[in-house]
TrEMBL record:
Keyword Cell inner membrane (UniProt): no
Protein name, as recorded: Helicase ATP-binding domain-containing protein
The Helicase ATP-binding domain, residue ranges: 40-93
One Gene Ontology molecular-function label: nucleic acid binding
Keyword Cell inner membrane: no
Organism: Champsocephalus gunnari
Organism lineage: Eukaryota, Metazoa, Chordata, Craniata, Vertebrata
Keywords (A to Z) from UniProt: ATP-binding, Helicase, Hydrolase, Nucleotide-binding
Pfam families: DEAD
InterPro entries listed in its UniProt record: DEAD/DEAH_box_helicase_dom, Helicase_ATP-bd, P-loop_NTPase
């Protein structure tokens, strides 16, 4: 049975990449934050997101989790690029 990241309104289970989900749990995340709960299903559907939330609310996870989920490990090419406005944020991401 594949673990489910509980709390995501659409029954999202990350079945494609169990390693990603296990990494999320190893980082100590048990439940998505409100910004993650709202944005992850949208991002996984391939739609763009414009969201705003306070510092420390999980915004990075809100876009990085779906980005990593959509990476096809069988393809040998660049599949994603994350651009951030500051050096400090680049170190965090």
């Amino acid at each position: 049975m594949v673990p489910v990241l509980s709390g995501l309104g659409v029954g999202l289970s990350f079945k494609e990449q169990k390693e990603l989900l296990m990494g999320i749990f190893e980082m100590g995340w048990e439940k998505p934050s409100p910004i993650q709960e709202e944005s992850i299903p949208i991002a996984l559907s391939g739609r763009d997101i414009l969201a705003r939330a306070k510092n420390g609310t999980g915004k990075s996870g809100a876009y990085l989790i779906p980005l990593l989920e959509r990476i096809d490990l069988k393809r040998d090419c660049i599949q994603a690029m994350v651009i951030v406005p500051t050096r400090e944020l680049a170190l965090q991401v």
